[in-house]
Amino acid sequence: DQQVKQNSPSLSVQEGRISILNCDYTNSMFDYFLWYKKYPAEGPTFLISISSIKDKNEDGRFTVFLNKSAKHLSLHIVPSQPGDSAVYFCAASGRSGSRLTFGEGTQLTVNP
Amino acid sequence: GAGVSQTPSNKVTEKGKYVELRCDPISGHTALYWYRQSLGQGPEFLIYFQGTGAADDSGLPNDRFFAVRPEGSVSTLKIQRTERGDSAVYLCASSFTRSDTQYFGPGTRLTVL
Question: DSSP label at A104?
């Protein structure tokens, strides 16, 4: 079963606007959540993370929101830039860390 | 400093052959992970090393897959009797400790003909 799901395979936004990427999870043992960005022919690059004790974490243009009761997290990018165009993966791990469980990814395209 | 490196970047082999994929983690990182990414999917966990020992190998799909990390640094993923379904990008990641952020290498694209 897919414990981490990203239901939108793709998202297209205009430069300067907000991009919102969504992720849902089913495993209540997940304690730590991360977003990775991936360009073609490269490995995933860490973007931002959030612990289950928080509901928001911000780093520059990137903010991650966590709603534990809904088992939902989202990544907000504002303002979006063409260089943000990539595949974004949501990932989760348990309290003790180690293995990550990834979603299927969302292809973000930011149009100039 | 240098990131995670993986060799080769591409490997083409024939069904039934043996392959080895290498990972050089970030210096000082004690934890090392292997993942496999098939087309259109997210990375799937294969195995995790803490130091020299495999702390969790529950993601290895079958006994054709094996990995080692003999000196607690470089790791090799070994696949015996390759099958066409093994074709994927094999990703390696490392972290300072098991609870720290994992940093990924560029991956090895394996194609089994």
Answer: -
Task: Tell which A residues from 46 to 105 touch B, by Cβ distance under 8 Å.
Answer: 46, 49, 89, 91, 96-105
**CA distances in angstroms from A58 to A32, B24, B90, B102, listed in the order given:** 15, 31, 31, 19
Q: Cis link prior to A79 (omega < 30° from 0)? A: yes
For residues B84 and B104, give the distance between their C-alpha atoms in angstroms, rounded to a whole number. 25
Structure-block tokens of residue B78 = 């070994």
What does the pLDDT look like over A60-96, one tens digit per residue? 999 999 999 999 999 999 999 999 999 999 999 987 6
Q: Per-residue pLDDT tens for B85-113?
A: 999 999 999 999 888 899 999 999 999 99
- How far apart (Å, rounded) are the C-alpha atoms in residues B6 and B1? 16
Q: Please say whether the beta carbons of A107 and A11 come within 8 A.
A: yes
Residue A10 C-alpha, separation from nearest chain B C-alpha, in angstroms: 12
Biggest CA–CA distance in chain A, Å, is 42
Strands (DSSP E) contained in A15-84 are 19-25, 30-38, 45-51, 56-59, 62-67, 72-77
